[in-house]
Amino acid sequence: MKYHDYIWDLGGTLLDNYETSTAAFVETLAEFGIEQEHDCVYEALKVSTAFAIEKYAPEIENFLEKYKENEARELEHPVLFEGIPALLEKILDQGGRNFLVSHRDNQVLEILSKTKIATYFTEVVTASSGFKRKPDPESMIYLRDKYHITSGLVVGDRAIDVEAGHAAGLDAYLFENVVALKQAIDM
């Protein structure tokens, strides 16, 4: 194992949520009489929710609130990427630690509970923790300093995750799939 500590992003890294988020976004657009291709919305959401709204629904008042309602319903049944629970457990078995940094609120804790991976994390930082959003490294610096992380890897699926990790003085990995990640960290 190359690193002792791992700081994970949730959506798109541990949780395969882009599909559920895309379904909710397309559904919300349809409620306002707008049809949009799944793949286009998917790519826009990978940039950010704000980007997708600006691109497809900039003039729709309360779109974000309605979308979040639909997304929350979709997230009642969260799905992890295959192999994630085993990888998190293996890190712990080898003496490592897992941390989580998410821009979502404390809904994250419910998702971790439903997917039965909450016990794998030493600490979970959410939007409710009060830190600035990534790419600001504030939350990662907090974890680095609190837990004396000297051999840490930030794992996320977007450039902002990598940018925040590097700005916090940590190595970072742009997640594509579990198999490639396991090879990269010698697991």
From TrEMBL:
Name of this protein: HAD hydrolase, family IA, variant 1
Q: Which GO terms describe its cellular component?
A: cytosol
- State the organism of origin: Streptococcus peroris ATCC 700780
InterPro entries, per the entry: HAD-like_hydrolase_sf (IPR050155), HAD-like_sf (IPR036412), HAD-SF_hydro_IA (IPR006439), HAD_2 (IPR041492), HAD_sf (IPR023214), PGP-like_dom2 (IPR023198)
Task: Give this protein's Gene Ontology molecular function annotations.
Answer: phosphoglycolate phosphatase activity
E.C. number(s) listed in UniProt: 3.1.3.18
Q: Which UniProt keywords apply?
A: Hydrolase
Q: Where are the transmembrane segments?
A: none
One GO biological process term is: DNA repair
Q: Does the keyword Acetylation apply?
A: no
* Gene3D superfamilies registered for this protein in UniProt: HAD superfamily/HAD-like, Putative phosphatase, domain 2
What PANTHER family does UniProt report for this protein, alphabetically? PHOSPHOGLYCOLATE PHOSPHATASE
Q: Name one Pfam family in it.
A: HAD_2
Under SUPFAM superfamilies, the record lists: HAD-like (SSF56784)
